[in-house]
Write a structure and sequence with these properties.
By secondary structure, the protein is mostly helical. It binds protoporphyrin IX containing FE (2 copies).
Length: about 190
Protein backbone atom coordinates (compact mmCIF):
# COMPACT_ATOMS: atom_id res chain seq x y z
CA UNK A 1 0.00 0.00 0.00
CA UNK A 2 1.21 3.53 -0.82
CA UNK A 3 1.73 6.28 1.81
CA UNK A 4 -1.35 7.27 3.83
CA UNK A 5 -3.92 9.22 1.87
CA UNK A 6 -4.51 12.88 2.74
CA UNK A 7 -7.86 14.63 2.60
CA UNK A 8 -8.24 18.28 1.57
CA UNK A 9 -10.01 20.77 3.83
CA UNK A 10 -12.86 21.19 1.31
CA UNK A 11 -13.38 17.41 1.10
CA UNK A 12 -13.36 16.99 4.88
CA UNK A 13 -15.87 19.78 5.45
CA UNK A 14 -18.23 18.51 2.77
CA UNK A 15 -17.81 14.87 3.93
CA UNK A 16 -18.82 15.67 7.52
CA UNK A 17 -21.68 17.92 6.44
CA UNK A 18 -23.03 15.21 4.12
CA UNK A 19 -22.55 12.56 6.84
CA UNK A 20 -24.41 14.66 9.45
CA UNK A 21 -27.34 15.68 7.24
CA UNK A 22 -27.62 12.18 5.73
CA UNK A 23 -27.80 10.60 9.20
CA UNK A 24 -30.45 13.20 10.11
CA UNK A 25 -32.51 12.22 7.04
CA UNK A 26 -32.24 8.60 8.18
CA UNK A 27 -33.48 9.62 11.62
CA UNK A 28 -36.57 11.29 10.11
CA UNK A 29 -37.32 8.07 8.18
CA UNK A 30 -36.85 6.00 11.34
CA UNK A 31 -39.20 8.29 13.30
CA UNK A 32 -41.81 8.21 10.52
CA UNK A 33 -41.80 4.42 10.55
CA UNK A 34 -41.69 3.94 14.32
CA UNK A 35 -42.52 6.30 17.19
CA UNK A 36 -44.05 8.98 14.96
CA UNK A 37 -45.93 6.58 12.68
CA UNK A 38 -49.34 8.13 11.97
CA UNK A 39 -51.33 4.95 12.67
CA UNK A 40 -49.34 4.23 15.81
CA UNK A 41 -49.90 7.75 17.17
CA UNK A 42 -53.54 7.58 16.07
CA UNK A 43 -54.03 4.35 18.07
CA UNK A 44 -52.63 5.96 21.23
CA UNK A 45 -54.87 8.99 20.72
CA UNK A 46 -57.90 6.77 20.09
CA UNK A 47 -57.40 4.61 23.18
CA UNK A 48 -56.72 7.64 25.42
CA UNK A 49 -59.91 9.33 24.20
CA UNK A 50 -61.87 6.09 24.65
CA UNK A 51 -60.85 6.06 28.33
CA UNK A 52 -62.57 9.45 28.52
CA UNK A 53 -65.64 8.11 26.67
CA UNK A 54 -64.84 9.97 23.46
CA UNK A 55 -65.02 7.86 20.33
CA UNK A 56 -62.85 8.50 17.29
CA UNK A 57 -62.73 6.36 14.13
CA UNK A 58 -59.43 4.72 13.16
CA UNK A 59 -59.29 6.89 10.03
CA UNK A 60 -59.80 10.14 11.94
CA UNK A 61 -57.21 9.09 14.50
CA UNK A 62 -54.67 8.40 11.71
CA UNK A 63 -55.38 11.75 10.11
CA UNK A 64 -54.65 13.52 13.41
CA UNK A 65 -51.51 11.38 13.75
CA UNK A 66 -50.48 12.58 10.29
CA UNK A 67 -50.95 16.22 11.33
CA UNK A 68 -48.79 15.68 14.42
CA UNK A 69 -46.11 14.09 12.23
CA UNK A 70 -46.17 16.84 9.57
CA UNK A 71 -43.81 19.37 11.26
CA UNK A 72 -41.25 16.59 11.88
CA UNK A 73 -41.56 15.40 8.29
CA UNK A 74 -41.01 18.91 6.93
CA UNK A 75 -37.48 18.57 8.27
CA UNK A 76 -36.96 15.62 5.92
CA UNK A 77 -37.65 17.83 2.91
CA UNK A 78 -35.58 20.74 4.25
CA UNK A 79 -32.66 18.37 4.95
CA UNK A 80 -33.19 16.97 1.43
CA UNK A 81 -32.66 20.42 -0.15
CA UNK A 82 -29.54 20.93 1.99
CA UNK A 83 -28.22 17.55 0.82
CA UNK A 84 -28.88 18.55 -2.79
CA UNK A 85 -26.69 21.63 -2.29
CA UNK A 86 -23.98 19.57 -0.56
CA UNK A 87 -24.06 16.98 -3.34
CA UNK A 88 -23.45 19.69 -5.94
CA UNK A 89 -20.58 21.11 -3.85
CA UNK A 90 -19.12 17.57 -3.52
CA UNK A 91 -19.22 17.22 -7.33
CA UNK A 92 -17.44 20.58 -7.75
CA UNK A 93 -14.74 19.52 -5.24
CA UNK A 94 -14.43 16.23 -7.16
CA UNK A 95 -13.99 18.07 -10.47
CA UNK A 96 -11.39 20.46 -9.02
CA UNK A 97 -9.39 18.08 -6.81
CA UNK A 98 -10.04 14.65 -8.37
CA UNK A 99 -11.47 11.57 -6.62
CA UNK A 100 -10.28 10.30 -3.24
CA UNK A 101 -10.75 6.72 -4.43
CA UNK A 102 -9.47 4.78 -7.46
CA UNK A 103 -11.49 4.36 -10.64
CA UNK A 104 -13.02 0.88 -10.09
CA UNK A 105 -12.69 0.10 -13.84
CA UNK A 106 -8.94 0.78 -13.87
CA UNK A 107 -6.68 -2.22 -14.48
CA UNK A 108 -4.08 -3.21 -11.90
CA UNK A 109 -5.77 -2.02 -8.70
CA UNK A 110 -6.28 -4.43 -5.80
CA UNK A 111 -9.57 -6.28 -5.39
CA UNK A 112 -10.12 -4.48 -2.09
CA UNK A 113 -9.72 -1.04 -3.69
CA UNK A 114 -12.00 -2.05 -6.56
CA UNK A 115 -14.71 -3.16 -4.11
CA UNK A 116 -14.38 0.02 -2.02
CA UNK A 117 -14.53 2.29 -5.08
CA UNK A 118 -17.51 0.38 -6.49
CA UNK A 119 -19.37 0.88 -3.20
CA UNK A 120 -18.61 4.64 -3.17
CA UNK A 121 -19.61 5.00 -6.83
CA UNK A 122 -22.86 3.07 -6.29
CA UNK A 123 -23.55 5.22 -3.25
CA UNK A 124 -23.16 8.48 -5.17
CA UNK A 125 -25.42 7.08 -7.95
CA UNK A 126 -28.15 6.02 -5.51
CA UNK A 127 -27.76 9.30 -3.60
CA UNK A 128 -28.40 11.29 -6.83
CA UNK A 129 -31.47 9.12 -7.53
CA UNK A 130 -32.89 9.87 -4.04
CA UNK A 131 -32.38 13.60 -4.55
CA UNK A 132 -33.91 13.61 -8.03
CA UNK A 133 -36.94 11.49 -7.04
CA UNK A 134 -37.36 13.56 -3.83
CA UNK A 135 -37.50 16.75 -5.91
CA UNK A 136 -39.97 15.08 -8.31
CA UNK A 137 -42.23 14.10 -5.37
CA UNK A 138 -42.45 17.73 -4.26
CA UNK A 139 -42.44 19.53 -7.64
CA UNK A 140 -43.71 16.94 -10.12
CA UNK A 141 -47.28 16.30 -8.94
CA UNK A 142 -48.64 17.39 -12.33
CA UNK A 143 -46.93 14.43 -14.08
CA UNK A 144 -49.09 11.72 -12.47
CA UNK A 145 -47.35 8.57 -13.81
CA UNK A 146 -43.85 9.93 -13.33
CA UNK A 147 -44.80 11.09 -9.82
CA UNK A 148 -46.08 7.62 -8.90
CA UNK A 149 -42.86 5.99 -10.12
CA UNK A 150 -40.73 8.63 -8.34
CA UNK A 151 -42.49 7.92 -5.01
CA UNK A 152 -41.96 4.15 -5.45
CA UNK A 153 -38.25 4.55 -6.24
CA UNK A 154 -37.72 7.22 -3.57
CA UNK A 155 -39.13 5.04 -0.79
CA UNK A 156 -36.59 2.32 -1.68
CA UNK A 157 -33.81 4.80 -0.74
CA UNK A 158 -33.94 3.51 2.80
CA UNK A 159 -32.34 0.19 1.81
CA UNK A 160 -29.17 1.48 0.17
CA UNK A 161 -28.84 4.18 2.86
CA UNK A 162 -28.78 1.67 5.70
CA UNK A 163 -26.61 -0.78 3.71
CA UNK A 164 -24.04 1.91 2.83
CA UNK A 165 -23.72 3.35 6.34
CA UNK A 166 -23.28 -0.13 7.86
CA UNK A 167 -20.71 -1.16 5.20
CA UNK A 168 -18.89 2.19 5.51
CA UNK A 169 -18.57 2.01 9.28
CA UNK A 170 -17.63 -1.70 9.32
CA UNK A 171 -15.07 -1.05 6.54
CA UNK A 172 -13.57 1.82 8.52
CA UNK A 173 -13.27 -0.28 11.68
CA UNK A 174 -11.42 -2.97 9.66
CA UNK A 175 -9.21 -0.28 8.09
CA UNK A 176 -8.34 1.08 11.55
CA UNK A 177 -7.60 -2.42 12.86
CA UNK A 178 -5.59 -3.34 9.74
CA UNK A 179 -3.17 -1.51 7.45
CA UNK A 180 -4.91 1.85 7.48
CA UNK A 181 -4.58 2.99 11.10
CA UNK A 182 -5.60 6.59 11.73
CA UNK A 183 -7.84 6.78 8.61
CA UNK A 184 -10.72 8.26 10.65
CA UNK A 185 -8.58 10.91 12.36
CA UNK A 186 -7.10 11.76 8.93
CA UNK A 187 -10.65 12.46 7.71
CA UNK A 188 -10.76 14.96 10.63
CA UNK A 189 -7.34 16.65 10.48
CA UNK A 190 -6.49 15.90 6.86
CA UNK A 191 -3.23 13.96 7.34
CA UNK A 192 0.21 15.36 6.63
C1 LIG B 1 -20.14 8.93 11.28
C2 LIG B 1 -19.10 8.22 11.00
C3 LIG B 1 -18.27 8.37 9.76
C4 LIG B 1 -16.92 8.28 9.74
C5 LIG B 1 -15.99 8.06 10.94
C6 LIG B 1 -16.49 8.45 8.35
C7 LIG B 1 -15.19 8.44 7.91
C8 LIG B 1 -14.77 8.41 6.61
C9 LIG B 1 -13.41 8.24 6.17
C10 LIG B 1 -12.22 8.05 7.07
C11 LIG B 1 -13.42 8.22 4.80
C12 LIG B 1 -12.22 8.02 3.88
C13 LIG B 1 -12.20 6.59 3.46
C14 LIG B 1 -11.32 6.27 2.32
O1 LIG B 1 -10.40 7.03 2.00
O2 LIG B 1 -11.58 5.23 1.72
C15 LIG B 1 -14.78 8.40 4.37
C16 LIG B 1 -15.19 8.47 3.05
C17 LIG B 1 -16.48 8.62 2.66
N1 LIG B 1 -17.58 8.77 3.49
FE1 LIG B 1 -17.58 8.72 5.51
N2 LIG B 1 -17.60 8.62 7.56
C18 LIG B 1 -18.71 8.57 8.37
C19 LIG B 1 -20.02 8.70 7.98
C20 LIG B 1 -20.42 8.84 6.67
C21 LIG B 1 -21.80 8.95 6.25
C22 LIG B 1 -23.02 8.95 7.18
C23 LIG B 1 -21.79 9.10 4.90
C24 LIG B 1 -22.95 9.26 3.97
C25 LIG B 1 -24.02 8.59 4.07
C26 LIG B 1 -20.41 9.03 4.46
C27 LIG B 1 -20.00 9.09 3.13
C28 LIG B 1 -18.69 8.90 2.70
C29 LIG B 1 -18.31 8.82 1.30
C30 LIG B 1 -19.26 8.90 0.12
C31 LIG B 1 -16.92 8.64 1.28
C32 LIG B 1 -16.04 8.48 0.03
C33 LIG B 1 -15.10 9.62 -0.08
C34 LIG B 1 -15.50 10.67 -1.05
O3 LIG B 1 -16.62 11.20 -0.96
O4 LIG B 1 -14.70 10.97 -1.92
N3 LIG B 1 -19.59 8.90 5.56
N4 LIG B 1 -15.59 8.51 5.49
C1 LIG C 1 -30.50 11.19 0.22
C2 LIG C 1 -31.61 11.84 0.32
C3 LIG C 1 -32.94 11.21 0.69
C4 LIG C 1 -33.24 9.99 1.23
C5 LIG C 1 -32.28 8.87 1.64
C6 LIG C 1 -34.69 9.93 1.37
C7 LIG C 1 -35.41 8.85 1.82
C8 LIG C 1 -36.78 8.78 1.91
C9 LIG C 1 -37.55 7.61 2.30
C10 LIG C 1 -36.95 6.23 2.69
C11 LIG C 1 -38.86 7.93 2.28
C12 LIG C 1 -40.05 7.01 2.63
C13 LIG C 1 -40.37 7.14 4.08
C14 LIG C 1 -41.52 6.23 4.48
O1 LIG C 1 -42.44 6.01 3.69
O2 LIG C 1 -41.48 5.74 5.60
C15 LIG C 1 -38.95 9.32 1.85
C16 LIG C 1 -40.13 10.01 1.66
C17 LIG C 1 -40.21 11.31 1.21
N1 LIG C 1 -39.14 12.13 0.84
FE1 LIG C 1 -37.18 11.64 0.91
N2 LIG C 1 -35.21 11.13 0.94
C18 LIG C 1 -34.17 11.93 0.50
C19 LIG C 1 -34.26 13.18 -0.04
C20 LIG C 1 -35.43 13.87 -0.26
C21 LIG C 1 -35.55 15.14 -0.95
C22 LIG C 1 -34.38 15.89 -1.63
C23 LIG C 1 -36.86 15.48 -0.93
C24 LIG C 1 -37.52 16.71 -1.49
C25 LIG C 1 -36.98 17.85 -1.64
C26 LIG C 1 -37.59 14.44 -0.24
C27 LIG C 1 -38.94 14.41 -0.01
C28 LIG C 1 -39.66 13.34 0.45
C29 LIG C 1 -41.11 13.31 0.58
C30 LIG C 1 -42.06 14.46 0.26
C31 LIG C 1 -41.46 12.04 1.04
C32 LIG C 1 -42.88 11.49 1.33
C33 LIG C 1 -43.29 10.63 0.17
C34 LIG C 1 -44.67 10.04 0.39
O3 LIG C 1 -44.81 9.08 1.16
O4 LIG C 1 -45.60 10.53 -0.23
N3 LIG C 1 -36.69 13.47 0.14
N4 LIG C 1 -37.67 9.81 1.63
Amino acid sequence: MSSPKTYSRALRIVHWLIAGVFLFIMLTIFLRQNWMNKDHMGMILRSELLKRNIELSGKEASLIGKSIRAPMWQWHTVAGYILLGLYLIRMIVLKVEGATFENPFKAGITGKDRLKSTIYLLFYGCFATSLLTGILIVWGKQWHDLHRIAVKIHILSMYYAVAFVVLHLVGLVFAELGKNKGIISRMIHGGS
